[in-house]
């Protein structure tokens, strides 16, 4: 197989709205150390680059958001918590509320972290008090086993328990930048140890290649047998990227939608009755050169084959990534009379539940 050549999409920042220098001065007066933390690659997969995004995203923060980020760091310092904990809390707060102390949210979710009184996080008065919320977030974080060794976005998810766990990674450069600048911290963030974007897609493909010849078994996700979505799920998991099971769910919740004509190695290719996303019944891993690797159907084995159409190939592929799909990608109620081949029905989104303590509501 030819060596993968992966295009890197440079994400545009919003530094023009508020000067980067201005927000840095606001945070530390004369600037801070460790600004290199903002140059990490936060978006998983060959479609995002974190270079420069830390400062760019920080430049868009409101005064309230900057104050809340400062308070997260101050309380973290007072409690003797390491900078990694501050970064996790900032990423969670930015994801859940845009670092704002909201008095509204999904169901009874409130505050910076969208904590729900009905789930035992505290009274309405408590979960809208900035200091209480921050301390409560830290309390629950500290109860998560091994949080210090997790990628910050994964640790944030363990506290929040969102139905879209990958979205917390998006704000990794910004949170690392704020910690390094406001906290005057030099050192290592999760960013510096992340593999490059191209390596991730390559790892997913290499894992799938080692499964060639293994039998198709409906519902299987390894190690000895696979169905189509079990293979794609485990391939990307081997690269450190979590995507859901079932082909329809992978289409709607597995990443970013990209036109088939722009497919890159590692993308997920789908087939559906009538080319309808609600009729998806098969998924494969694109290899490039018009080839796919997939688990075909009962009685067959994992194989590499040429990409085929048959009147069912969808014109859109999915690129697994850290961001959740936009609202336009959310699946409408299915009208297809034929269920996907790898599941009786796509599973419903998982509502927030507790982790060591009742979990915050969060966006679904």
UniProtKB/TrEMBL annotation:
<dbReference type="Pfam" id="PF00877">
    <property type="entry name" value="NLPC_P60"/>
</dbReference>
<protein>
    <submittedName>
        <fullName>NlpC/P60 family protein</fullName>
    </submittedName>
</protein>
<keyword id="KW-0788">Thiol protease</keyword>
<keyword id="KW-0378">Hydrolase</keyword>
<feature type="domain" description="NlpC/P60">
    <location>
        <begin position="198"/>
        <end position="322"/>
    </location>
</feature>
<dbReference type="GO" id="GO:0008234">
    <property type="term" value="F:cysteine-type peptidase activity"/>
</dbReference>
<dbReference type="GO" id="GO:0006508">
    <property type="term" value="P:proteolysis"/>
</dbReference>
<dbReference type="InterPro" id="IPR051794">
    <property type="entry name" value="PG_Endopeptidase_C40"/>
</dbReference>
<dbReference type="InterPro" id="IPR038765">
    <property type="entry name" value="Papain-like_cys_pep_sf"/>
</dbReference>
<feature type="region of interest" description="Disordered">
    <location>
        <begin position="315"/>
        <end position="364"/>
    </location>
</feature>
<keyword id="KW-0645">Protease</keyword>
<dbReference type="InterPro" id="IPR000064">
    <property type="entry name" value="NLP_P60_dom"/>
</dbReference>
<feature type="compositionally biased region" description="Pro residues">
    <location>
        <begin position="334"/>
        <end position="349"/>
    </location>
</feature>
<comment type="similarity">
    <text>Belongs to the peptidase C40 family.</text>
</comment>
